[in-house]
Amino acid sequence: MVENSNMSRSAVVIDPDYLKHDPGQFHPERPERLKVLLDLPKELDSQSFALLPPRAALRGEIEPCHTSDYIELVRSTSEKNRYALDGDTVTCRDSFGIGLLAAGGFLKLIDSIEASEFQNGFALVRPPGHHALRDRAMGFCLFNTVAIGAHHLKRHYGVERVMIIDWDVHHGNGTQDAFYQDPSVLYLSTHQYPFYPGTGAVEEAGSGKGEGFTVNIPLPAGCGDGEYLRVFEEIVMPIGAKFRPGWVLVSAGFDPHRSDPLGAMNVTEQGFGAMASMLLDLAERYAGGKIAFLLEGGYDLNALKNSVIAVLRRMEGESEPQPPVGIGGEAIQPLVRKVLDFQQKYW
Ligand SMILES: [Zn+2]
Q: What CATH number is given to the structural domain containing 245?
């Protein structure tokens, strides 16, 4: 058998077209976010990484997650120079097309991993997606890319258990909603709370058949690497192990970074790297290594770039830095206890 030489490699989806979505001057979700990442594939070791150009998602691929009226509304914004879908979600003529390219880039990454062309990958796309609801744009998001990816895995590949972990500083209300009654998709979120968008309390745990398959970990402002790693070690990893995912999707927002202007957390790039490592291990153990990272928020350009690099290095197999990022944050142990006590009836 001829060995597939790509198989040890990771894919990075990125494209200059992602700069074309312009929400207007002074908007934090600006094209520069992707511009600072554009050269990454060239800077990375070509033995370990390959550039995967995106494709646009087809309407049929986003329809499981959005109503036709809503898709038509977003399409109609391409006839206007500027349109405000909500207070902070503003489009230009290219936004609809770039929203499809963001979703399609993620789907192409998933397809390439399913086809064993790559082991895993990172879709560096914008706009972000995790606030987008079935019929409404929200919080800079047009289409819910990670939800579209999870549906694709279920429908196209018959994956029975998809785990979505969302470490963006904001709660992914759109993703939670998309699978609230669906036991085949486990949604776990760490987020600053109380904070935008207001959802994500411990007690929001899914409903009907989906009860128990939404796990919210609402964190107080000020949490850093120690607190996040404690939460990963004590909640995310054990529940993930019990769920035994066939696939892992990561809504990787870098706005919990200590330099981020929107969030009030203290995570460092090494902290994101350590979280990525744990998830890579989980995917290796249960999902044959199948894991796809998706860029959500992250608004300090340096912090964003360095954090993405830290995650990519871990995907490449880089080991723990010395000294390793330690588990700390004893102060949030009562919250960890509260989440575990609440989740105990499910896990
Ligand atoms: Zn965010």
A: 3.40.800.20
Full-model pTM: 0.97
**pLDDT, position 319:** 80
Whether 190 is covered by a domain: the verdict is yes
Q: Considering 66, 130, 131, 191, which one is annotated as catalytic? A: 131
Any catalytic annotation for residue 131?
Answer: yes
Segment 54-100, tens digit of pLDDT: 999 999 999 999 999 999 999 999 999 999 999 999 999 999 999 99
**Which is it for the CA torsion 286, 290, 295, 296, positive or negative?**
negative
What is the per-residue pLDDT across 236-250, written as a single tens digit (0 to 9) for each?
999 999 999 999 999
Domain carrying residue 90 = 13-343
**Tally of structural domains, the chain:** 1
- The residues pairing with 247 across neighbouring beta strands, listed in sequence order, are 162
pLDDT at 321: 76
CA–CA distance, 251 with 235 (Å, rounded to integer): 17
Q: Are 267 and 258 in contact (CB under 8 A)?
A: yes
Q: Which residues surround ligand 1, an ion (CB under 5 A)?
A: 168, 170, 253, 255, 297
Q: Which residues contact 231 (CB under 8 A, 6 or more apart)?
A: 190, 217, 219, 332, 336
* CB neighbourhood size of 45 (10 A): 10
The length of the chain is 347
